[in-house]
Amino acid sequence: SVLLLTIPINSITLRVLNRIARRENEAKDDRTKRTTEAISNMKLLKLQSWEKTFESDIEYYRQKELRLHSIRGAVRALNQAISNAVPAIVLVVTLTAYKNTGKPIVASTIFTAISLFNQLRFPLFFYPMLIDSLANGKNALRRIASYLSSEEINPYVNRFPLIEGGGGTIEMNNGNFMFPSSASLGTGNSSQLIAPALCGANISIQPGEIVAVIGSVGSGKTALIKG
């Protein structure tokens, strides 16, 4: 009966840990988001003297995260203490019930009971870790499912139909690529060109092929793609 009483206690502990973990992750996400925003716009922060404002905002979410982490640690410690105390409580209750039957309690009975209930200590030692892992796993699955089920940002996603056979071929024969010099960029004079970045390029891409352009630095990869 004592072991059965631990089932609702562990169920409540799992729900509490899951709720705290979800709130802690939300606070962590808010802190990370604001930290990234501050780092990405550091020049604007310095220009407008917003360092203290962003610092206090980040510190608020950091303290919230630490507070929830402390509460979560306290719940885990309480659950660990209950799990460690269960074998001793079960032993005391069992010996008390055995004595109430009118039978004498001898040393052989006591040591046998102690040896039996000590076998419970090893599985119960890992039980709090299992509950904490279940809470973390459930929360992680919820976050992954929320991310994977979110809609695509349409303006930034271009979908092209799959190219089937017979759709044509991209070919280039003896292609030469060169860039204008820095002096001609401001004057509009296209006659001032630097040496060709790529000469005599021949390429043939069949429909449906996946092509990777590789090479050393300065070999003309960018010139080929932009050309």
UniProtKB/TrEMBL annotation:
Transmembrane segment boundaries: none
Domain of life: Eukaryota
Keyword match Transmembrane helix: yes
Domain ABC transmembrane type-1: 1-136
CC per GO annotation: membrane
Recorded coiled-coil stretches: none
Keyword field contains Phosphoprotein: no
GO molecular-function terms, A-Z: ABC-type transporter activity; ATP binding
Pfam families associated with the record: ABC_membrane
InterPro entries listed in its UniProt record: ABC1_TM_dom, ABC1_TM_sf, ABC_transporter_C-like, P-loop_NTPase
Keywords: ATP-binding, Membrane, Nucleotide-binding, Transmembrane, Transmembrane helix, Transport
Protein known as: ABC transmembrane type-1 domain-containing protein
